[in-house]
Amino acid sequence: xxxxxxxxxxxMLALLASAALFGLLLAIYQRVDPLEAFxxxxxxxxxxxxxxxxxxxxxxxxxxxxxxxxLPARLGLVIIGNEGALxxxxxxxxxxxxxxGSAPPLVVQLxxxxxxxxxxxxxxxxxxxxxxxxxxxxxISSLLLTYIAIALMNHFVEGPLRDPSSLNKxxxxxxxxxxxxxxxxxxxxHWGLVYGIVACLICYVVxxxxxxxxxxxxxxxxxxxxxxxxLDVRRYVLLACAAGGAAAGLAGMVEVAAVHGKANxxxxxxxxxxxxxxxxLARHHPLAIVPVAILLGGLSASGGLLQxxxxxxxxxxxxxxxxxxxxxxxxxxxxGRLGRKAExx
Amino acid sequence: xxxxxxxxKMIDKFNIGRRAVMGGAAGAAAFGLVxxxxxxxxxxxxFIYVGPRDDYGYNQAHxxxxxxxxxxxxxxxxxxxxxxxxxxxEKSMESMINLDGATLVFPTSFGYFDPHMLxxxxxxxxxxxxxxxxxxxxxxxxxxxxxxxxxxxxxxYVAGIVAGSTSKSGKLGFVAAKPIPQVLRNIxxxxxxxxxxNPKITTQAIFTGDWAMPVKEAEATNSMIAQGVDVVxxxxxxxxxxxxxxxxxxxxxSGYHCNQAKLAPKGYLTGAEWAWEKVYTDMVNDMKSGKAxxxxxxxxxxxxxxxxxxxxxxxxxxxxxxxxxxxxxxGSLAIYKGGLKDNKGNTVIPAGTSYLITEPKLESMNYLxxxxxxxxx
Lengths: 345, 377
Prior knowledge:
Helix content of chain B: 25-40%
Mean pLDDT of chain B: 89
Low-confidence stretches of chain B: 1-38
Oligomer: heterodimer
């Protein structure tokens, strides 16, 4: 019980400290009343039904891309190629959507999702494979793979898959309005949010209640011990990487099928990189990813209002994100200490 | 940024925001077109930029024009920068409409149009959306949307004359983002202008692959300087890197998007600039008089949509450039005329044909003219 409390209390403390520091910066450097800024941020992120939907729309892709870092992290890998997996997923989804064309929408959507998950999964499994079979650091290789992914996307979007009528913004052929996945009924938030939450729940259940999950935890704790116990470490690494990549690939499919209707350079707008941040802030816990993504979605939703009302630069929100990131990482040292005090009492 | 009275003003803005939200779309509509006469309610205009407002480039050109609108009576401008071309821009537009009461929105980046702006236009039929880029088509797109664009290749042509006159090596350089029609028009017009001074002049074109690639832009500029290029220009979102790199190497530069003379006090010759304030003040005046702004708005030097930067100290051939500018203003000069060959030897405009700047065929340009070193693929 004490431990569970600590898991919530420590990040909360870190968040409060970040907010205080950010408020101080605002007051000193921008001469803005911090309370007013926070009130605006609340208004922009959660203050009304519109604002909350704005936040959820921005959070949706982050939930999926965060899993790309979180799942391999369970095994002790640091994967940061989320953006690349999203991009290849998006392009694969568009290709599948164009190829499936006139089939019933549900079939087309399913084909797109599967293509995206396979492409994204294979992409990150490649980084996992390089680590397991060739000893290449997975952090570096997954990051570099992102550049290759973007180059490949440009190749396909400007070459084989290009709609010749997309003159000044090269894009693939559209997948067709009928094949788009609409918003969740009663909202204007797309289904990516539900996919993300379901994916997080599945990951949690697998990690918590299955032998697979337990095996992964053992490998994350000590791969040598795991090997001695007879666990096939390679298989689990590839599996976790593929699952993470599949989640990010699915985020790419959602971008194509729910937002753009085609694939183009707008796939690479940084959802993948933001996903890394979400995963670390959530300490790679699948259930924590959802609220953290909503928090970051809210920050980005409120950023516009800060710019418009207080004349703050766009960088203000980025600075706050940075402060939160550092504060959460620094707060890791608090674990155990708070608990001990509580026990002593 | 905010001053002492900032706090009071904020409270005021807050109230406007709340009222607009309560009024909902209907309320916003009322004071958009019909009730614009009510003087106490300002006309709220939203600007969205894809990059930073102070990029010395594409976004600054729009932001400078927005700053001029801010001085107009009864007008309130709200701005957001660095908004990506995805769900974020849809939500930014909605937020401006819902929370700030904006009735005219300018999403300024090319990629904001389809599907993002079109989606919002369908959702908020009473709000006017005008997009920079020239994609609007009668009958295909809703009437509360529209597009505006400038024939900036006219200004590039004039800048090319200055570049061609100033260059000693006869080698010009052009750092470009992507081989798309808008960019190719600029490279070709710049080269054709320079060739009127010296028919043998060449333009080395290097494509970086994307709109903001500072490292590649610097590499491209440096490699061109090493090859003997002595005037560079560019078509990327922010010309800052290219112009500064050129100045540091002691060669000349020609600007793009907005005036970069500050970055290169010695080597800045002239440049092709947007004059968006013309478009924006026209549209705002339309709104204030209760009319919807134009849906398909285009113009070049003559209409005042584009201009050239004031000549720098090193600029040569000013007379020729001024004469060409006058001829364009008078309608007696065609930039694209036959027989024109591309750099692979194919005739792209047959002899005896001359295109007006408004010619639709030019909108799908896919070639580089003779004298340009580089490839579109």
